[in-house]
Description:
2 domains; two-stranded antiparallel ribbon; 7 strands
Amino acid sequence: MTRSYPKLLYFSTAMALLGSLQFGFQIAILNTSLDSVRESLNIPSSHGAVVVSTLLVGALFGSLGAGNLADKLGPKKATVFNAIPLALGSILCATAPSEPLLLLGRLLAGIGTGAASLFVPRYLNEIAPNPIRGLLGTLNQILINIGIVVAFALGWPYEANPSKTINLFGLYTLPWWRCMFAVGVVPAILQAIGMALCPETPVWLLWSGLHLQATKSYRALHGSSAPSGSELGAVGDVTIEGGEDDEQKSSIRNRGVTFDVNDNVEAPLLAPNTAATTSTRNAPGGIGAEEEPNGEEGSFTALLNPKYRRIMILAVGVVFQQQLSGINTVILYGSEVFRTAGIASPILANLVMGGINTTATVVAAMLMDRTGRKLLLTLSFSGMAAALGLLAAFLVMPGISDHFAALVALGAIFIYTIFFALGCGPVPWVYLPEILPAEIKGPAQALCTAINWFGNFLVGVSFPGMMHVLGLGGSYAVYAALCCGSAVFCGKYMVETKQRSLAAVHAELMRSTSQ
């Protein structure tokens, strides 16, 4: 029987997901409008990759600092403050009179986008019950895709008129691309207001030593009755049991270990210089009976500890391979890709691709907690490799008519997008917070998110040059080979997390490292 949850859980999820919407919107906004922006601001065509990639540079740096900010302020409050660079970036891009100010706006929007790419999965993971953890995590990717579709749809007027303008109150004539950028202000403001009404995550409150507040947040999000049996561990790494008004009888289960609420629980997400000690009991899997805090825990230095080696290889691998799949070649440069492949209506093709991407991600959300992360991701990379191999072959094969090659290219890109959405898109952001232990979650998630954005940047900067040197077919042959390698990596090294407690996952990864 499916358990129902309070409306506050769904409201908090929706408010957090506005960050995912902005992620997709910001990354795709120049796909259809880049030519018009260059024309309006007299930007040389050789600077196109710079304009596109500045957002990715900002996102890289934004994601690096996001983990520490979320640790200190809490994921909720950090998300509220993150509306500032997102809104300012959109305003600056919409009003920029020159290329330097446009780049500054893109940089600010990138900082907010990079931070949101960490804040949203973390917030969702820390409020989500186990039975719907995969579903809520996949909603992150669904809203990213919806943001992409919104950006593509706003570019539709350019299909009929590449120099589209809008008359504002009969006083000003503005290029349409300025209105497109201005739309980005709306979700930023809505999220700031909405998140201010949401609770902080029970996980962060607990690690901050705010036990009663953590209990109240847990019950507000999950209902008044305590979880039992298979629902233990329902909120991220933490379960809170007992009466709201009787902290003496409350217990907290962290990483598969039960603590008295009055014990000083090890707090890896606490601000620096906060003392923390741990007293553990009834630890499953032989996890230690007594733990003393390590001064390195919660820092980037801790990631070098050999006991985390397999965890970090998996974490870095899945997020970096997402970008090596080449998906952002069609998100960032889709109009140019479709045009080069001979598609007559590239903006329409973009919209159809965005719709397919979103629909397939909804299917992935339904499969995530049934099929499992490992199988979905392995099949996803395999299907993408096959689709890109087909695309590359028909683009370079002699004797094929342009019309037939264009149809095959269109079909191959759509199939490639479907396989991406079924696994490679949503799985890494669900899988990452599941395999990261509490004591390194902040720095590890920040590092992995930054690496993901670095891969995005590499794709954004290199793809125009790859097309010039290798052609479209040769470029996608490279990405097909990378997808093959990623499929092998996932099939061989991933640990399944479906319907498992996070403590059990972490224990398995720790044991495999020590053997």
